[in-house]
Structure to design on (283 residues):
């Protein structure tokens, strides 16, 4: 972690407090007229918090620094969580989050380059890991210490292109590449294990030549500890399986496919905020 990151995080509070604010932003955005991908946004909030406030070498004052770490949100439908994280980190005004999904807003349903801190437009599932390979290989050729991080959904792993990229990364020994799987067990139409089972996921990744760790995906300090230590094995790309809950923090939606895309009514918006306050001590 850089000195700048330490100072900025100390000013903003603990990782848990930052994650709580980001979750509230996600809920607020899903109360807008367009709604949003609430469940997957809440399941990866702690991962994004750990990355942007404890791991990534990025600077909102210099978003195009050639030596920055790269982050790609391969599960691009969780863009609202990324926007909320970037806003809390200082890449864009927090007030702009109210424009999410509105006509003319740059805060679209999937990430776009018009938003500071977004490396590439993503959301066509299965492409992010290959792009991360490209960033990692470019950093190697530039003799740069930068790392590349890619956040994928577990349903996304059903795309064959993910495993083509996994083979390439291991073959090229891209040990500055780190993948994080938001393993919440659900996708749009139901449980991932019922649609296209991927477990045992850790063994699957190891068989492709990756160094693998598993962790509670809702413990941002523990996530940061593992991610900051990558690469875990010289010459091997790293993948962290973050075991999460879709719709985390909202008992009336958590762990349900119905949380995938939600437009919160005023009643449910208030209900959701009350639930977050109760579970996270929000004021």
């Amino acid at each position: 972690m850089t000195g700048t990151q330490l100072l900025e995080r100390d000013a903003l509070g603990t990782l848990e407090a930052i994650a709580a604010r980001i979750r509230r932003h996600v809920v607020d955005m899903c109360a807008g007229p367009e709604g949003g991908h609430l469940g997957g946004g809440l399941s990866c909030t702690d991962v994004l918090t750990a990355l942007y406030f404890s791991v990534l070498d990025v600077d909102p004052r210099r978003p195009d620094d050639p030596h920055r770490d790269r982050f790609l949100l391969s599960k691009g439908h969780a863009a609202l969580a990324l926007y909320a994280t970037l806003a809390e980190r200082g890449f864009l005004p927090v007030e702009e989050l109210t424009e999410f999904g509105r006509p003319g807003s740059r805060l679209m349903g999937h990430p776009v380059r018009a938003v500071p801190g977004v490396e590439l437009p993503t959301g066509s599932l299965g492409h992010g890991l290959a792009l991360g390979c490209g960033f990692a290989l470019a950093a190697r050729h530039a003799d740069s210490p930068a790392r590349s991080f890619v956040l994928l959904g577990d349903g996304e792993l059903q795309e064959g292109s993910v495993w083509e990229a996994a083979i390439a990364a291991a073959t090229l020994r891209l040990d500055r590449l780190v993948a994080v799987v938001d393993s919440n067990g659900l996708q749009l139409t139901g449980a991932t294990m019922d649609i296209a089972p991927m477990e045992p996921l850790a063994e699957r990744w190891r068989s492709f030549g990756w160094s693998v760790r598993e962790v509670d995906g809702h413990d941002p300090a523990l996530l940061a500890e593992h991610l900051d230590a990558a690469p875990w094995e010289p010459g091997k790309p790293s993948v962290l399986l973050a075991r999460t809950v879709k719709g985390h923090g909202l008992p009336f939606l958590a762990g349900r496919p119905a949380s995938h895309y939600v437009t919160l009514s005023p009643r449910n918006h208030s209900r959701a905020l009350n639930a977050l306050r109760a579970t996270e001590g929000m004021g």
